[in-house]
Q: What sequence folds into this?
């Protein structure tokens, strides 16, 4: 009943910016922490950024100062503003969230990802 859908990926030149969105939908009571991860082909999935229900944030060292995670609780949506993009940011970006569905226990969910490409 719950799903996460990412959007906003694309191709950007080095130094450019993109904003990704992650919308949680379905029978939802509340959305707790939300996070972004990324995975490049042949690489392990890695943490990018996280935001709690109280708007506390943390970031991977590789994106600190460049990426900003935020959320709109009324829309059950998280955002990832990516500035000063580098080729090493190229990856599929996945949304992750702890969601409490209506009439069920809180569980962790993954979106299917959105591709961000930053050519060299």
A:
């Amino acid at each position: 009943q719950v799903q996460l859908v990412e959007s906003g990926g694309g191709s950007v030149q080095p130094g450019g910016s993109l904003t990704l969105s992650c919308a949680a939908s379905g029978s939802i009571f509340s959305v707790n922490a939300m996070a972004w991860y990324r995975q490049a082909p042949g690489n392990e999935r890695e943490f990018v950024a996280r935001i709690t229900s109280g708007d506390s944030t943390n970031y991977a060292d590789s994106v600190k100062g460049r990426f900003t995670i935020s959320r709109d609780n009324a829309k059950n949506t998280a955002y990832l503003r990516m500035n000063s993009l580098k080729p090493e940011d190229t990856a599929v970006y996945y949304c992750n969230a702890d969601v409490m569905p209506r009439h069920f226990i809180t569980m962790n969910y993954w979106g299917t990802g959105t591709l961000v490409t930053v050519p060299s």
Notes: Residues 27 and 62 are 35 Å apart (CA to CA). The chain is about 0% helix and 55% strand. The first strand starts at residue 3 and ends at 7.
